[in-house]
Amino acid sequence: MLIIGNGESRQGIDINSLTTPKVGCNAIYRDYVTEYLVCVDKRMMAESLRAGANTRGTLIYTRPDWYSQFKTLRVRELPSLPYNGTNRWDEPFQWGSGPYAVLLGAMYTKTREVKLLGFDLHSKTKTVNNIYKGTPNYDNADKRAIDPRYWIHQIGMVFNCYPKIQFTIYQEPDWELPKAWNYSNVTVDKISNIV
């Protein structure tokens, strides 16, 4: 199972050449068809349906809060979190599309392998790191970079809750694994090695 974030590190990767089942986030549908699409933002959910993403073989997942508004062909509610937490970042409404996509991958993989692509976390500049920045329903290209602490915690909880699954993060050589992701079932490989 391949989980595709929208970090700029994935620019230039031909997603269509990767034959494993895919979970994408938000506007990836503009460029590629994935088996699963996660849209927790109401505007992105509406956009994906207007574009017919659910009629091209993609199963779209959204928040239970929005589900009744978008209940239609090939739309599902996101699953419950696999743990109970007490902090704000543990509340399901605080989870973004990326962490939920990783959770779906862990739940649906048949091979016990989950690959992550485009989960950059940090920006190399002071501005937002997203290949869709400056497009409809995304931040302007000059907006300040997002603090990744919530993503790091949430994705780390998925790694922790699914210890029998091997997670491989494909990244650029200078990318550093967050300390919170230092689990025996998490490895990092060069982005050029993704197949």
Plain-language structure description:
This protein is of the alpha/beta class and 195 residues long. Helices cover 21% and strands 17% of the residues. The protein has four helices and eight strands, in the order E-E-E-H-E-H-E-H-E-H-E-E. The chain has an eight-stranded parallel β-sheet with strand order 5-4-3-2-1-6-7-8. Helix 4 (149-161) links the parallel strand 6 (113-117) and strand 7. Helix 3 (97-108) packs parallel to helix 4. The chain is globular and about 40 Å long. The mean pLDDT is 96.
Short description:
This protein has 195 residues and is α/β, with parallel strands linked by helices. The protein has 4 helices and 8 strands, in the order βββαβαβαβαββ.
User: Which structural category fits the helices and strands?
Assistant: alpha/beta
Coarse shape: globular
Task: Please report the total strand number as a whole number.
Answer: 8
- SSE ordering: EEEHEHEHEHEE
The unreliable regions are: none
End-to-end Cα distance:
11 Å
Q: Hey, roughly how much beta strand do the residues contain?
A: 15-25%
Q: Please, how many helices?
A: 4
Radius of gyration: 16 Å
Characterize the largest beta sheet: strand count, sense, and whether it forms a barrel.
Answer: 8 strands, parallel
The spatial strand order of the largest sheet comes to: 5-4-3-2-1-6-7-8
Q: Helicity level, as a percent range?
A: 10-25%
